Amino acid sequence: MRTLAIRHVGFEHLDLLEDILNDRGHEVRYLDAGVRPLDDVDPMADHLVVVLGGPIGVYEREAYPFLDAEVEFIARRLGARRATLGICLGAQIMAAALGARVYPGPAKEIGWKPLKFTNTGTFSPLSAVGSASVLHWHGDTFDLPPGATLLASTDVVENQAFALDSYGLGLQFHLEVTAENLERWFIGHTLEIATTDGIDVPGLRAATAEAAPDLEPLATKVFEDWLDNAGL
């Protein structure tokens, strides 16, 4: 098995998901968006593609022209029904690749809180999270893509997770994070933290220390069950 992870900033990587994939015998490689072009990469070559998060918007094509190729790459992969997982920005790229609109949300969601599942969501791999808090770190949102099934929402953003049969999963939030790696986020996203009302590093660190240990085994089960369903 081969997994390609498209990464937008160095510290937002696969984290605990990488360990899961390694345990399953996947050969995991990273492609750093904006540094290495996708032109010479076959979108069908890997058993799984994971599109990771980042602090840019899908609609910022003029500033970040590599997004055009990335959206097209994912569109080709999804059109072939190849296993694809999108996290935060990655979910937004999946939505754009399917023709949905991506745009600034009503407010930033940064911090830990639980999800509200749809009826379909309660019978999906995502339901293993239950009432546990997950990490939200985004300002943008998207319309539900054509053909996608909504799995979860929050009080701020309706479209938090969607499924494409058994081959596609878009998560607006972060299940892959560990408390250890979030220390890198607190440094890398310092400007966003400092300019967002109601949050600060000590508060985020304290909430992470409380929520992350409970989430990790649940997130592991979500990923394991989804990978099983996708035949990976």
The global form is globular
Any idea what the radius of gyration is? 16 Å
**Largest beta sheet: strand ordering:** 2-1-3-4-10-9-8-6
Our count of domains comes out at 1
Order of helices and strands: EHEEHEHEEEEEEHHH
Query: CATH topology, what is it called?
Result: Rossmann fold
Helical percentage:
25-40%
User: What does the average pLDDT come to?
Assistant: 97
- Assembly type: single chain
**CATH class label:** Alpha Beta
Q: Figure out the total of helices.
A: 6
CATH homologous superfamily designation: Class I glutamine amidotransferase (GATase) domain
In terms of DSSP E residues, the strand content is 15-25%
- Low-pLDDT ranges: none
Structural category? alpha/beta
Most strands sheet: 8 strands, mixed
- Strand tally, please? 10
What's the CATH architecture name? 3-Layer(aba) Sandwich
